[in-house]
Amino acid sequence: MSRFMPRYALLVPGMVLMAAAAEPGVSGWTVVQTEDSPAVMSRSMDGMTVTYAYDPEDYNSLKVAVEPCSGNSWYIKESIEPEGENLAARSASLKAAIAQDMHNARLNCKLPDGVEDRIMTGFDEAYAQFEKLDQ
Question: Domain range holding 105?
Fold first, then answer.
């Protein structure tokens, strides 16, 4: 797959709007890379958002956010590089980190029952698509 996603222009009088084409959704996950930003995969459900982003200058970042949470928003963000020799091992490593962050979210916020399992549906396929992007 090409490093940069195809771009489409929408002509509006006096301006041109550019939109990056996202990879097709994988079980609700969005995997995207644009000319201006590195690869990102994310999924939102029931007030929780999980985002994993490639960072060419440092470790990749993982963010789990919940809104609302006791009338505010709550999030945890960390630098992470999944461990493992192969795709399955790296995916498992990242899923373990996400599970820990979701546990912390549940300690701080009221979450719907089963949201952790529902939001992680299709994660392995989405992560495989994320790794295929030329980062």
Answer: 7-132
Distance (Å, rounded) from C-alpha 7 to C-alpha 100? 36
- Is residue 2 in a domain? no
Percent above pLDDT 90 for the chain? 62
Q: Which of 79, 76, 96 is nearest to 88 (CA)?
A: 96
Is 0.70 surpassed by the pTM of this model? yes
Looking at the domain assignment, is residue 1 inside a domain?
Answer: no
Q: What average pLDDT does range 16-39 have in this prediction? A: 68
Pair 73, 64: CB distance under 8 Å: no
3-state secondary structure of 26: strand
Q: Is residue 75 part of a domain?
A: yes
